[in-house]
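Help needed: design a sequence for this.
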């Protein structure tokens, strides 16, 4: 009997002890792992803690519902976390963190925010975003990225409205600082869907826009017709994208002047309105192009990325490209200079 008991004890020790050890080891690993994770992700918390007292009220809070509430966690009395974000802002300190560490902030914030663009408040550094589109259509007839979905376009216009942007024209650009969150909307090439799809949406928001039109394509299939140009003249300014969409830097001076002056004359005759802005085809220009453009136009836009700041060269105005694949979050980032 005692022999059997001894054997049983030995067997138990042999079989149970390793299991017990493994269990303890697992338990230790769990505890250690938890601690490690906690240590590894405090960046936002620490940052928030540091900043809460000074920055918590520096926000454009549209209503109380969107207030940032303190958590009930007594260990972290000073930690504030975003809650019920369906409005249009987050505090500056979260923004600052977001800009410094987009990926990590995305993970943290996405749990709490339903409308992603709301995490980015309207910019306030005085730069004017000049947006540029091409076609606005879900029927892709050409290079896909040039065709922004009308639904996306509408959402983008809504973003501008919800975030109190003021849509201005090029003639208002020199005094842009008089407007709240000024922005300019432009379209290149003169696609017909600018009238059939974009114009009704612009009308809905009462936003003005500029279409840079190549005079050679007027009345051609897929491009704007004369009567459409005239029908949307309440909001749409037609400006030059040259006659033939040629790289201007490659032209001899005579041909260059023909593209600049010729397109201006055709468009002025057509619309009966001043044509004083040009978009360089392919964003291409050089010293000669700049010099000649100044003879006929007051403003010229490029495809270089950036905002327009007061005292920038009016003949090298940067723009913000809006391609099809840009979702509303990307749009909000771009228009706020996060790229
Ligand atoms: Zn073009």
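Sure. Designed sequence:
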């Amino acid at each position: 009997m005692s022999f059997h008991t001894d054997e049983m004890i030995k067997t138990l020790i042999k079989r149970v002890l390793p299991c017990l050890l493994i269990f303890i080891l697992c338990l230790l690993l769990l505890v250690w792992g938890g601690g490690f994770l906690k240590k590894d992700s405090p960046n936002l918390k620490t940052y928030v803690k540091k900043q809460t007292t000074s920055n918590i009220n520096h926000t454009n809070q549209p209503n109380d519902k969107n207030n940032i509430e303190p958590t009930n966690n007594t260990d972290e009395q000073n930690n504030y976390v975003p809650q019920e974000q369906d409005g249009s802002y987050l505090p500056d300190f979260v923004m600052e963190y977001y800009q410094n560490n987009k990926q990590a902030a995305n993970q943290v914030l996405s749990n709490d925010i339903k409308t992603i663009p709301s995490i980015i408040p309207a910019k306030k550094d005085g730069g004017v975003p000049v947006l540029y589109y091409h076609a606005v259509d879900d029927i892709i007839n050409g290079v896909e990225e040039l065709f922004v979905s009308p639904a996306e376009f509408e959402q983008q216009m809504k973003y501008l409205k919800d975030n109190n942007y003021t849509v201005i024209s090029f003639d208002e650009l020199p005094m842009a600082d008089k407007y709240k969150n000024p922005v300019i909307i432009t379209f290149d090439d003169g696609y017909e869907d600018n009238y059939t799809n974009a114009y009704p949406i612009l009308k809905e928001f009462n936003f003005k826009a500029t279409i840079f039109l190549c005079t050679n394509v007027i009345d051609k299939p897929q491009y704007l017709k004369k009567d459409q140009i005239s029908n949307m003249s309440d909001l749409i300014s037609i400006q030059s994208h040259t006659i033939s969409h040629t790289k201007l830097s490659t032209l001899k001076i005579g041909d260059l002047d023909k593209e600049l002056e010729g397109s201006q004359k055709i468009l002025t005759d057509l619309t009966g309105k001043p044509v004083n802005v040009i978009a360089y085809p392919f964003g291409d220009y050089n010293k000669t192009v700049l010099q000649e453009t100044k003879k006929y136009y007051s403003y010229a836009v490029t495809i270089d990325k950036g905002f327009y700041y007061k005292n920038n060269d009016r003949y090298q105005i940067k723009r913000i490209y809006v391609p099809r694949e840009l979702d509303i979050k990307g749009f909000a980032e771009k228009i706020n200079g996060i790229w």
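The beta strands are 130-133, 135-136, 147-148, 166-167, 182-189, 209-213, 236-240, 277-279, 299-305, 317-321.
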